[in-house]
Amino acid sequence: MILDGKGLSARRLELLKEEIQGEKLSPTLATIIVGDDPASQMYVRMKHRACEQVGIHSVNIALPGDITTRKILDRIKQLNEDPDIDGILVQLPLPVSIDTDTVIASIHPDKDVDGFHPVNMGRLMTGLSGFCPCTPKGIITILTENKIPISGKHAVVVGRSVDVGRPVAMLLLLADATVTICHSKTINLIEFTKNADILVSAAGRAGIIRGDMVKPGAVVIDVGTNHVNGKLCGDVEFSEVEKIAGAITPVPGGVGPMTIASLMENTVMAARNRCTHFI
Residue 277 has what pLDDT? Predict the structure, then answer.
């Protein structure tokens, strides 16, 4: 089974559009981009197109690459205090001169629709409601919408990043999977991946998961976005693994579109929370 994230994302966005109209919501997302990195600019454009598609108002704040951390914090403070702004997203990565952790921590947790604030990470860790990082949230949506069982399964996550690896491992654990996290210091990676019922690769290394590393019938989620010879590819050697796996996400068209759909869902949730607080 090819797990079509693009098609699922389109359906989720259409449903979200209907919910916004039906509930007469007026969500607003503010994005901040620092510098002129082409990939970051492309990702921000995609997010704003999705906003327009579902009926979320969006504003983009483009800041120069030589800006100071303090000036970014001042801009975020304004957005935090603006009652018309529901969600704030800082496009990552930031220039090396910027203190990224301080910037992320300055976003009000109730507007942190990317789910990276320590408060929201803590909520995730303890199983409390909050904003979940968008890519991990999208991965769980792919599994549940395709009726793939998680409870009782052995899930192996390759990669321990704060934005994907760790939170997706926690979400799988909260869904009652038995979870193993592998990383760059893991010895004999194949011993772990070969036993996975659900294999999530978020290593950021093209071709790290080969056919002989996958259990027959396993569900393989490829989070990788690597560029090789001018082409986008994932962490998984797709041509090898698709013959062995029971289900697999393609790159592109798998996890990526669901990341954006999850961002839209988080923004709508922020708008609902604002309305609830107002009442």
Answer: 58
∠ CA 43-49-55, rounded to 5°: 135
Residue 153, helix vs strand vs coil: coil
**Bond preceding residue 93 cis, omega within 30 of 0:** yes
Rounded Cα distance, 243 and 216, in Å = 9
pLDDT in tens, 208-219: 999 999 999 999
By residue count, the chain amounts to: 279
CB 225 within 8 A of CB 255: no
Would you name the residues annotated as active-site residues?
47, 91, 114
Angstrom CA distances, 203 to 107, 111, 157, 163, 165, stand at 27, 28, 9, 12, 8
Q: Do domains 25-109 and 134-256 have the same CATH topology?
A: yes
How do the domains of the chain map onto residue ranges? Answer: 25-109, 134-256
Instruction: Encode burial over 32-61: b for 16+ CB neighbours within 10 A, e otherwise.
Output: bbbbebeebeebbeebbebbeebbbbbebb
* Structure confidence by residue, pLDDT tens digits, 124-134: 999 999 999 99
Fold (CATH) for 134-256:
Rossmann fold (3.40.50)
pTM over 0.90: yes
Class level of CATH domain 25-109: alpha beta
The pLDDT of residue 274: 86
State in Å, rounded, how far the first CA of the chain is from the last one.
46
Low-confidence ranges of the chain (pLDDT < 70): 277-279
Nearest to 179 by CA among 162, 188, 191, 166: 166
